[in-house]
């Protein structure tokens, strides 16, 4: 009778089913967290091939020091400060990523001779970048300036609140310069005092169309131009800042639409008039105890610094998500001006999504001898 009761008692069946569902859900949750953690480790690790490439480039510099001696080319140097040309800025410690950005931009340009690229890296990768771009055959006669962040006198702890905060916290000891490299964007107007407008490109984008219209468009009195992310990704200020803090509550609306880095146009003249760097310093100082956002986060200080100073770009100019969203249609990708591998699955990693990889690899210079030495597959 007891066995029969278990067979036909619905309450017991329901309880067993609920227990099974709970156990499976718990296993799924743990597996998902483990997968996300593994993906994060993979994204933040340097692949052997990329490490090999950096070492080979440094070896080339050491072996041929005279070849890479700094020689001032007056015409080229003048172009670095010529406001009539179209200036791109890339902050990166990834030589392969930066090279794809430059290659794709030049390849799709109507007038590449008018383009100037300013690549800013850290001290460790300075010569890696210099050797690569001196030897690249895909960008002959392109104006490329490579500088270390240490070359800019404005970047010092006595002036930069974030650098002070990072130096005061031991756990940021080994990554503080990597964080600062990304935050250099808040000093564009001081780093390039003679320029009027620049386009900032991240090192995980691929340019597919001529970007000249970005330099000619009306900025409508705004400092920054960017693609909004509230429509496609449901991202608002409330997702990035601590709205339980009274200062954030008072100044901002949690439902305000967020925007993305990746492709940004900055009007440096308006920036200087509106004192945006001073605004950034104010908010970074207020965040000294990380009460507003996590120390080192990049988007929150951008949202507050350029609040009501941002012009929204057409989504054509910047399609995001190739590093995490497997459902972006090929028609949308082919039509886009710039595609962005935002997310952890970067195109140079083994975890990259296969369906998006060819958009990136087509601009890798596989003919470069240093690439051939390091077993980059394609």
TrEMBL record:
The keyword Glycosyltransferase applies. One of its GO terms (cellular component) is Golgi membrane. The keyword Cell wall biogenesis/degradation applies. InterPro entries: GAUT, Glyco_trans_8, Nucleotide-diphossugar_trans. Pfam families: Glyco_transf_8 (PF01501). Pathway: Glycan metabolism; pectin biosynthesis. It is found in: Golgi apparatus membrane. Keywords: Cell wall biogenesis/degradation, Glycosyltransferase, Golgi apparatus, Transferase. GO terms for molecular function: polygalacturonate 4-alpha-galacturonosyltransferase activity. GO terms for biological process: cell wall organization. Gene3D superfamilies: Spore Coat Polysaccharide Biosynthesis Protein SpsA, Chain A (3.90.550.10). It is a single-pass type II membrane protein. It is an enzyme of class 2 (transferase). Its EC number is 2.4.1.-. Belongs to the glycosyltransferase 8 family. This is Hexosyltransferase.
């Amino acid at each position: 009778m007891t066995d029969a009761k278990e067979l036909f008692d619905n309450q017991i069946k329901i309880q067993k089913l609920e227990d099974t569902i709970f156990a499976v859900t718990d296993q799924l949750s743990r597996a998902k967290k483990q997968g996300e953690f593994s993906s994060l480790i993979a994204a933040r690790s340097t692949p052997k091939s990329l490490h090999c490439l950096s070492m080979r480039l440094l070896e080339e510099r050491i072996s041929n020091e005279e070849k890479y001696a700094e020689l001032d080319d007056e015409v080229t140097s003048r172009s670095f400060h010529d406001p009539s040309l179209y200036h791109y800025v890339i902050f990166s410690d990834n030589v392969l990523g930066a090279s794809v950005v430059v290659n794709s931009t030049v390849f799709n340009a109507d007038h590449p001779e008018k383009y100037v690229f300013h690549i800013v890296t850290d001290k460790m990768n300075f010569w890696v970048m210099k050797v690569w771009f001196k030897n690249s055959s895909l960008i002959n006669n392109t104006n490329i300036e490579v500088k270390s962040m240490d070359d800019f006198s404005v970047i010092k702890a006595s002036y930069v609140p974030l650098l002070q905060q990072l130096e005061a916290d031991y756990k940021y000891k080994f990554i503080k310069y990597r964080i600062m490299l990304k935050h250099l964007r808040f000093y564009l107007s001081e780093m390039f005092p003679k320029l009027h407008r620049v386009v900032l490109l991240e090192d995980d984008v691929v340019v597919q169309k001529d970007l000249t219209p970005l330099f000619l468009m009306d900025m409508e009195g705004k400092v920054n131009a960017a693609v909004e992310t509230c429509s496609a990704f449901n991202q608002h200020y409330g997702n990035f800042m601590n709205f339980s803090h009274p200062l954030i509550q008072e100044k901002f609306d949690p439902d305000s639409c967020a925007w993305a880095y990746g492709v940004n146009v900055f009007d440096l003249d308006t920036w200087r008039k509106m004192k945006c760097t001073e605004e950034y310093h104010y908010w970074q100082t207020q965040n000294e105890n990380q009460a507003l956002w996590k120390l080192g986060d990049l988007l929150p200080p951008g949202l507050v610094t350029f609040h009501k100073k941002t012009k929204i770009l057409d989504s054509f100019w910047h399609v995001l998500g190739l590093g995490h969203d497997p459902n972006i249609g090929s028609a949308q990708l082919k039509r886009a001006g710039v595609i962005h591998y935002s997310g952890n699955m970067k195109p140079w990693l083994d975890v990259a999504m296969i369906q998006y990889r060819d958009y990136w690899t087509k601009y890798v210079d596989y003919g470069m001898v240093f690439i051939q030495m390091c077993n980059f597959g394609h």
